[in-house]
Amino acid sequence: MTIWAYGDSINTDQLFPGKYIYTCSTTEEILPHMLEDLDTEYASNVSEGDIILAGDNFGCGSSREHPVLGFKAVGLKAVVAKSFARIFYRAAINQGLLLIESPEAVEAYNDGDTVEVDAINGTIKVGEQEFSFPPLPAEVLAINEAGGLLPYVRKKLENSQ
Amino acid sequence: MTGMTFAEKVLAVKGGLDSTVPGQIVTVKVDRLLTHDNTAPVIAKISDELEKFGIADPDLHAVVLDHVIPAANEKTATNHQKVREYVKRHGITNFHDIGRGVCHQVMVEEGLALPGQLVVGSDSHTCSYGAANAFATGIDRTEAAAIILTGETWLKVPRTIRINLTRELPEMVTPKDLVLHIIGEIGAAGATYKAVEYHGDVDMLSFSDRFTISNMGVEMGAKIAAFLCDDVCKEYLSDHGISKDDYEEVWADDDAAYDSELEFDMSVRGPVIAAPHTVDNVSPVSRYEGTRIDQCFIGTCTNGRLDDLELAAEILKGEQVHKDCRLIFSPASSEVFLQALEKGIIGTLIDAGAVMIPPGCGPCLGAHQGILAPGERCLSTANRNFKGRMGCKEAEVYLASPLTVAASAIAGKIMDPRGDI
Q: Which of A65, B132, B273, B303, by CA, is between 20 and 30 Å from A157?
């Protein structure tokens, strides 16, 4: 498992360059360009269960779903950041990608530390230190539990018929 | 009980509640949903549901093609084709095809974002309609797809930062300089998840000025960036055929509770630059004066309106763009284009050696019409200077006002538009 650690204000152009947004839509098209202008190692070496660790304002910039789809498709365990930009945060909820806002956990991380996430109990372990993160609000959790926003809406529409 | 902020009030109304408090999650009825070229991938997510359930309301969904127009290749052409088919099949009433302008400018010109309304769009600069006293914010494509089907979504009630603007901007200093200055102070994440309300001497600002300021709200992380609906706003709306009966304005109570209050004296501001690669990397223009530039760009939802082009033309009248530099400009809409044409502004810019591209997003997002080469530097009136933003990660993007960009285009290097002061 790899921990991909980055700094503050990682923006959507760094996560997925704008020049590809109308030529790439499937995950096969998206994956090779993930983090292309930020970290050339990422796309070829990321694997299931990896975690991204970052500073403040992760995902700032455009309304761009591609990076969330890319993270989800590769089976990223979670993105842990000091804070997230709001459109990115909503996009992650809508795809069922786990985001953890924990400035303490990010501060505690040193190169080479192990990071373990327990989504059910809401804990994150960095090296030997353990931190807890609050559960999602009930309304949002329901979206997550349905497997994302569209499955959630589908169910709702079918029930109302 | 204390009063409510603008955001708290609108979310209460749209959620069918008497009041709301920060942190509360509210299911809201959406007044308008915007999607642009990304309509194609949005509707692709719900093709089965569209057949089975149909759309919630044909008037709810506004569609404007602006991002890659006219189509640059087979893929973007096919996207546009799918959008036009969807619009016809589902009887979408608010559709604007290529050439009408940048979606956000078109939304206000067409009266699709009105005072007191809740407007969302699958584009981060949807926050622009705060200038029209709307609660307007960006969402992602999947959420847009869900709203097409249901007409509603959930929003968390944000805390609000109150920004008091005092006095008046000096000559040759524009609202773009002001908002860049504010972002430089607050930081790119300074308003994350919060609403921003602008108060104070806002009557000194035109509707277009306010648009520029609201537009850049997302560059400080804000959910919304709103102004009140005063005579300036009402006049703009009535000039666009919207009567007072068409909307219900909303504004904060005097005793609303704020997260923080900031004050900016407009009269002490000067022209500024946001240098690569973050929008909050803001300094006085003087710090970069003399920096060689290869391309200038005047346009976008931030600074492509009539007053922006007019300011640029005043500087460029009788002058020539430097031989080692190129100047690209794009009117923000067909309305702006026609007005600029009538006023002779287009002729002045072309005479000075500028190149016009059609009303749309142009090179702002790095897809076409002015991509940079490695090592090149662009001075732009757009809203983002992220690495790779204009299509090349080895290029640099600097942000400034239309005045600074025009003066710099003549010099071929970054210049203070006030000259030697």
A: A65
What residues contact A79, with CB distance under 8 A and at least 6 apart?
A51, A52, A54, A58, A71, A92, A97, A98, A99, A100
Can you give the residue range of the structural domain that contains B126? 6-18+25-264
What number is the average pLDDT over the span A143-152? Answer: 91
* Closest CA relative to residue B179, chosen from B271, B64, B73: B271
Q: How far apart are CA B335 and CA B305, in angstroms?
A: 9
Tell me the average pLDDT across B39-63: 96
Q: In the listed set B218, B233, B264, which residue is the last one of a domain according to the structure? A: B264
Please report residues of A whose CB lies closer than 8 A to that of B45. 150
CB contact under 8 A, B142 and A95: yes
B421 has pLDDT over 60:
no
% chain B with pLDDT above 70: 99
The class (CATH top level) of A3-135 is alpha beta
pTM attached to this predicted model:
0.95
Q: Are residues B216 and B292 both part of a single domain? A: no
DSSP 3-state of B22: coil
The chain A residues in contact with chain B (CB within 8 A) are 8-9, 11-14, 17-19, 21-23, 25, 36-37, 56-57, 60-65, 68, 83-87, 90-91, 94-95, 137, 139-140, 148-150, 152-154, 156-157, 161
Nearest to B140 among A90, A137, A139 (CB): A90
Angstrom distance (rounded) from CA B117 to CA A46: 43
Give whole-number Cα distances, B400 to A105, B246, B285, B408, in Å: 38, 36, 8, 10
Min Cα distance B363 → chain A (Å) is: 10
Last residue of a domain, one of B264, B297, B316: B264
B25: which chain A residues are within 8 Å (Cβ-Cβ)?
137, 139-140
Look up the ipTM and state it.
0.89
* B145 DSSP β-pair partners: none
| Confidence at residue B1, expressed as pLDDT on a 0 to 100 scale | 67
Do residues B290 and B340 share a domain?
Answer: yes
pLDDT at A119: 85
Residues B202 and B286 in one domain: no
Look at chain B and report how many structural domains it folds into.
2
Residues B292, B238 share a domain: no
**Phi, psi angle pair for B293, to nearest 5°:** -130, 145
CB contact set of B409 (below 8 Å; sequence gap of 6+) = B293, B296, B316, B321, B322, B325, B327, B354, B379
Smallest CA–CA distance, residue B313 to chain A, in Å, is 30
The domain limits of chain A are 3-135
Pairing outcome for strands B118-121 and B135-138: parallel
Let me know whether B296 and B256 are in one domain. no
Amino acid identity at A23: T
